[in-house]
DNA sequence: GATCTAATAT
DNA sequence: CATATTAGAT
């Protein structure tokens, strides 16, 4: 099953233009000759900075529509080679998670977000300065990642995933794989799942009651039908057939929970699977497409980034597309 | 042994 | 309260 999914996705993926095929944003679309023929003023070549500024404007614009973008900081930048490794985590100021939660899409979303630890600042890192730090090379795996912030977007992915897999397959590992979010770990999912289950349980008890005030996050995403069943009995390792609700074979045909109209290139209920710019040097696909992104912060990272998700399956499996969600309120 | 879940810690 | 980490079970 997963293989099939991969096959489909790969197929789709292969259809995408490669770096070379894409016209760099910094490149003029009008040839000099053509330009002069029509008296079009030939604009000076854009610099990386211009491009970034442009992207930023576009993103801002999108955000005002519905796209919940909070920060540009975490976008892999075109300019440098960015990426030190990896996951474009979003670092949030210490107590800001609940931050803009529910209500609101406050307008502007004052993205008061963070600063990436940057290039300039360099290494500091180890707090305390233990004598021997010689041996520790923070490896993508070994590294302790900053706390994950479950943004509504991320949570939605989570719920979608759980909805697709039947309850029986909705276990951390599987969910994580389905979510396909760069940097997301099984533990992250497990922890969230635990809480989500609690929520579901609590919800069932008080049928027809609105979620309590503290359920903001969870209440923000509708509970898939197949999860609202009478009992949520997790982890029953039996060979039960696929959940009647979860689409059996189809890759990710999810449409059930898709509140928004989706353009081409969208994938079922999911926001679509943009390439991970990480490790590919890919400019963002169409800016409009990729929705957001992700989580925590990015502290040290060793390149070797990709593949936090150990997907050793599928020998010939091409690079995976990874989602990156931004923390933002709204939905 | 990997991974799940529940409990507990931060 | 939201997440992370640990412990015990499968």
What is the distance, rounded to the nearest whole angstrom, between the alpha carbons of the first and last residues?
31 Å
What general form does the structure show?
Answer: globular
Radius of gyration: 21 Å
- Arithmetic mean of pLDDT: 54
Q: Structural class of the helix and strand makeup?
A: mainly alpha
Overall helicity: 25-40%
H/E element string? HHHHHHH
Count of DSSP helices?
7
Q: Strand-residue fraction? A: under 5%
Q: Characterize the quaternary organization of these chains.
A: single chain
Could you list the spans in which at least 5 consecutive residues all have pLDDT below 50? 61-134, 231-320, 325-331
β-strand number: 0
Largest sheet: none
What does this entry look like structurally?
The protein has 331 residues and is mainly alpha-helical. Helix content is 25%, strand content 0%. The chain has seven helices and no strands. It has helices at residues 2-15, 32-37, 48-65, 152-164, 172-179, 186-205, 216-219. Helix 4 (152-164) packs across helix 5 and helix 5 (172-179) packs across helix 6 (186-205). The chain is globular. The two termini are 31 Å apart. The model is unreliable at 61-134, 231-320 and 325-331 (pLDDT under 50). The protein binds a DNA duplex (10 and 10 nucleotides) through residues 97-98, 144, 147-150, 171-173, 186-188, 190-195, 197, 214, 217, 234-235, 237. Residues 1-11, 81-94, 289-300 have a biased composition (Basic and acidic residues). Keywords: Nucleus, Transcription, Transcription regulation.
